[in-house]
Structure formats: C-alpha cells, structure tokens
Amino acid sequence: MNLQRKHQSETMKIYDLIIIGGGPAGVSAGIYAARQKLDTLLITKNFGGQMAKKAVNIENYPGMGEISGMELIQKFEKHLKKNDIKIKMESVSKVKKTGNTFSVTTRDREEQKSRAVIIASGSDPRPLEIPGEKKYIGKGVSYCVTCDGPIFTDKTVAVIGGGNSAFEAAYSLSRYARKIYIMEYSAQVKADLENQQRAKETGKIELVTNVLLKEIRGGDFVESVTYEDNTTKEVSVLKLDGIFVEIGSQPATSVVKDLVDFNERDEIVADPRTCQTKTQGLFAAGDVSDTTFKQIVIAAGTGATAALSVSNYLKLST
Amino acid sequence: MNLQRKHQSETMKIYDLIIIGGGPAGVSAGIYAARQKLDTLLITKNFGGQMAKKAVNIENYPGMGEISGMELIQKFEKHLKKNDIKIKMESVSKVKKTGNTFSVTTRDREEQKSRAVIIASGSDPRPLEIPGEKKYIGKGVSYCVTCDGPIFTDKTVAVIGGGNSAFEAAYSLSRYARKIYIMEYSAQVKADLENQQRAKETGKIELVTNVLLKEIRGGDFVESVTYEDNTTKEVSVLKLDGIFVEIGSQPATSVVKDLVDFNERDEIVADPRTCQTKTQGLFAAGDVSDTTFKQIVIAAGTGATAALSVSNYLKLST
Q1: pLDDT at A269 over 70
Q2: Global pTM?
Q3: What's chain B's average pLDDT?
Q4: Which among A293, A315, A316 is the top mutation candidate for probing chain B, defined by the most B β-carbons within 10 Å of its own β-carbon?
Q5: Count of H helices and E strands in chain B?
Q6: For chain A, what is the mean pLDDT?
Q7: CA nearest to A31, candidates A298, A309, A307, A313
Q8: Is B273 on the interface with A (CB under 8 A)?
Q9: Domain boundaries B141-245, CATH class
Q10: Which CATH class is domain A2-124+249-317?
C-alpha cells in the first residue's frame, strides 16, 4: 500500500519547468528559474555546451576577463548548484505535450512531467571528419573566428567552406592573419557576391575551390593540410598555422522537432522578446534558437529571458 | 602650419563607433567592438550603471555566484580596459546625425564623430524623494524585487505604487515575505484587474490607497514608514522591514530623443535581433531599450548583439 502510494505520487509529480541543456543558456535559465521559486528540473548530458570544446581561453564573457572554457563551465555549474534546482545528468530522447502538460523522456526511459519546457540544447559546429581534426582542436583547428581569430595575428590560416559564414570568417580573419585560404569542395562557392567581393578587396584571401580535404598534420600544433583536387585527383600539401571549419552547424533540435518551427539554418524560431516557440509553454534559448549571433553572454541572456517568461506564463496559466 | 594640420586631423577624426554608457550593456558592447577591431570611443559618466546602486549582493549574473555590485562593476571595467578602446569619462549632452556621420557632444562641449552609435545609457528607477529614502538604500529600501526579494523572507514589506509593476512586485514578494502592503497615492490603483485579483488570492497582500508617504525611519535598517491620509490628513506610522519602490523608471534617452521611437514605457524601440533603432547606424542596448526584462546578463547580451550588428552595419555601408 505504501509502495503503491509512493509510486502514485512519483508518477503524478509535475514540475513547473524542465530545462533541457547545461550550456550557458540552460544554466542561466536554471539560476533564474530557481530564483523565481519555480519547481525546476534541469536535464543535461554534461555542463558547458560548446564551451567544453574550446581549448583556447574565452575572452568575451563580460566581467570574466580571460578564462579557460573549463574554468568558466565550472563557475556556471557551481553557480547553478547554489540554487534550489533538481539536476538529472542524462540525454533527452523525446518531448511531448498533452493538454497543458509536457512529458520529457530521457534515454534511461524515465518520463518527467512539467507545465513548461525550456529547450537550450545548443548547437554543434559540423566537423570535417578527417584525420587530424580532433587531435588539433585548440592547437590550430577552430570552429569560431570571433573567439579564436586574434590568436592568428600575422599567421597563415585556411577557412574551410564556401558559404557566407566561411567568407565572413575569412573577412574577419583578415584583420589578424597575414594570409587566408578559403577552401571549398565545390567548383563554385555559394557566398553572396558582396561577401566574395569584400574578401577579394582585402588582398589577403585566396580561394581554392574543387578540393577535398584529406588530412590535417602537424607537430604540437597544426602545420599543414593535405587536399586532393576533385578533377585531377592530384594531392597537394598546404602549409599553414590554423584551420577554421565553417561548414555549418547542427542545432540539437530533434527532441522537439514536432513542436517548433525552424528557420533556414534549422534553428528553432522563437520570439526574441520572450523566447516563446510556436507551442505555448515551450521556450527556446541559446544557440538552438534563432538568435542572430552565437555568443556565450547572448545565450546566457536569452536563458534569463526564457526563465522569466516561463514565470509569467505559469502565472497566467493558473 | 604643423599646429593647423594637427588641429585639422583632430577635427576630422571619425570613429567607427561611439558607445554611450558604462553599464553592463555599454561595457559588453565595448569588449565586443574592440574585438571586432572597431575604432571605438566609449563615453560614460561612470561605470556600472544600476549595479552601482545595488548595496546588496548580485546573485544572478551567471558564473559569478554571489558578488557585490561594486566588485562586479570593477570586473566589468577591468575586462573592458584590457581591450583596445578609448574611454572618455563625461556626460553626453547631444547626439546628431548628418549624412552618414554621427556627432556626439559631451558636457565639456567637445564634439566627437562616428559612423555608428550604441546608446546604452540605462535607466534609473524613479525615486520617492522623501526623507530617509537615500539613507536606507540597501538597508531595507530597494528598487528591484527580482534582485532583493529573497532577502525579505518572512518579513513585512511595503511596495510603493499602484501600477502593474507594483502589483507584480507584491505578487513576487508573496513567495518570500510574510506580509506585503501596497501603498498608493491615488484613491484607485491602476493595475490590471487580473494583477489585483492574483495579489488578493495570496492572502498576504493588503492595499493602502489614498496615502502620501512622508518619511522612512529606522536604526541601522528600515523600521517604519510614515504616511498621511490624503483626505483626513491623519498621519500614521507603519512598522515594516523593507520598502520596494515601484513608481516607474526613467530611461536615459534625452540625448537621442529626436532619432528614435519610444514604447509606452519611454524606452527606445529597437529590433530585438539586432538592436537597430529607427535611425540607421544608431543601436540601443540594455535597459534604455525596450527589452522585456531588465537584468544584468540580458543587458550584457544585448550589448554584444549591438556591437556585432554595428560590425555588420559598417561592412555593408562601406
């Protein structure tokens, strides 16, 4: 009888809020939700989001000066855990909404219920998936010009990709680097003519098209990239100090894909003033959402906005 | 001849960007602008914005844990000054736009020119302007329930004001405080009926209308407020532990008033995705703009967004 009652009360537990994600947006949402006295469960595989992949120091989270990604993650995690919030270290496999209640299923097949959900599951840069790439992350391989560009002052670098983001990255790098190669698999690049023209005008950017990257090599740091001409199959080696991968990103949206709209970058469309998605009670924050710029402090700001919006939403829906 | 040339080149100097304000939004914009290699001048009377007025610790800037306002300001200022940015400690008296160039005049009658401006001049809570108010800031007098509410757990407090923000503040406080008085000058309150109803349902909130606040008194901390009935002129003393002033705020917008649109709260209307105002090249960030929630991390996030938008804007306008 006691056991049954216990089981019953467990299955009936409905959180005010479930937050999915432990990066800057999820942690910020968690801090704000706890301070709003929302009964909150945060579910994440790990803390830090993309910060965890940054082997170079972070210099643009206001107030922190220069700090390693790992140290900043620890500060976020510690700050979160000072608050009254339940944390479950697991992957989410599915989010459903029935009536006004969300159910969030994790990979361990547990189901949790809540009245609101913040999806802050982030986004991953799409990797090249070639030998040497993983080895040299933070040692010449980067996925973020805004973060790591200044390191390559007076160096030779390559930007991989042929879209606007690759050309914008190359243009940004032209403020620092001595020489920038843009390397693209197709024979034609997809970037706007304007972006192409601007890159050309720097006098520092050289376009290498129709090539397949084969391998990144070096000693302690990146020293070269090996590539093959798609037509002639000729293999060449290009000496360089850094490689910026700009072949797109993958917002981690699969668990809510039936509940939200997407923009052209596969990001979740959310009202920028409230983080509300098209499903009432489901909010999106950080890099998984369609914010214009992907930065730690911007993600943290949207996490706060989402949590305060949830607080308003729950007041109105009671 | 040399002197004349020097003078000429000085008067012709055009910055990429002038940032007005040294609070979280202005400092964050400054850090991002400098990292974007924008030739930037930041003009502010002082650093910290509203953080400077917080005598209690800040617990909701993600990653910082619990920190005093003054310490957080110092961290922001130090971080900013690590970057290549010019800083002028002065008040701005006027912003004009002629062609594509902005001119920003300071109180010392100097004029600076730039191709873009970020206004991040913040907002001040409107004070009561009664004896004892200034003395007890941080010692029972507060202008921010989100920040300071938890301090008053099981205490008796008053919220001054009769609008939605006062009722929302009182409702938020009902999670913490034992008893909340809402004190309003008019005979009728202006808050939505829904807000009034919700406040009533807490069973903790008592409405006192038609009163004029005269004085805040106490020892080391607030102990009472003295008020007069507007009809009978009877003077009463109410014992309490805290006073939240919610009689509106004053966004510091006067220097750009001819260049922007305002919302109903006298905040500058800005595109939430870019911070662009109605004047091309003029961006607004932080509490001076029409962000939904006024929080340090949200202001810092919009500062970053504004600076990155300026970078895009300047590329497109060259």
Answers
A1: yes
A2: 0.77
A3: 92
A4: A293
A5: 7, 17
A6: 92
A7: A307
A8: yes
A9: alpha beta
A10: alpha beta
